[in-house]
Design goal:
177 residues; 5-stranded parallel beta sheet
């Protein structure tokens, strides 16, 4: 078992440029100290400089990082593309082992919207349309209907507020970490 009855685990998944990182940053901004961000891109691309592939080392590192933060009393947001076929088992075990409430969200945007949003990112010149098309998976949901799907019509502030309320983070004080 991991975490406590009071710790919250939030999983944000979706395609590239769906808003995962912005929502995670918004949750942290709204909550304050005591909310750990476990970002797939940071651990995979920056820490390990690894490719996203089945069985890659980052899968275990995401799991260990989330578990460590939960055990230390932090609320945790795990965010990334986190393809269901590669990360699903790890996420299911983490969800099963977490003592407190866990909520899963899938941010769904069309491929056209992915392209439009990607064009505004700093890495727009490094990643082309063909790569984005290769990465894109339409509604790559985890098995068992465990995710709430949030579509592109939900504004960032609405999405953050909804998740704050749904997870119970809105009613909790920031921690003194």
């Amino acid at each position: 078992m991991v975490g406590t009855d009071e710790t919250r685990l939030v999983v944000l998944r979706g395609n590239s440029a769906s808003g995962k990182s912005s929502v995670a940053a918004g949750l942290r901004e709204k909550f304050g100290r005591g909310l750990a961000l476990v970002g797939q891109d940071n651990l995979r691309r920056i820490v390990l400089r690894d490719r996203d592939r089945p069985g890659a080392a980052n899968i275990g590192l995401i799991d260990l990082t989330a578990r460590y933060a939960l055990d230390a009393g932090y609320h945790v947001v795990v965010e990334g593309i986190l393809y269901a076929d590669r990360y699903g088992d790890m996420l299911a075990q983490l969800r099963a082992d977490h003592r407190g409430p866990t909520r899963n969200y899938y941010l769904h945007v069309s491929f056209g919207e992915t392209l439009a949003r990607h064009a505004t990112k700093p890495i727009a010149n490094d990643v082309n349309e063909a790569q984005l098309r290769d990465w894109y998976r339409e509604l790559d949901l985890l098995p068992g209907a465990v995710e709430t799907v949030i579509d592109a019509n939900s504004k960032l502030t609405e999405t953050v507020e909804c998740i704050m309320l749904d997870t119970g983070l809105a009613g909790l004080p920031a921690l003194e970490h």
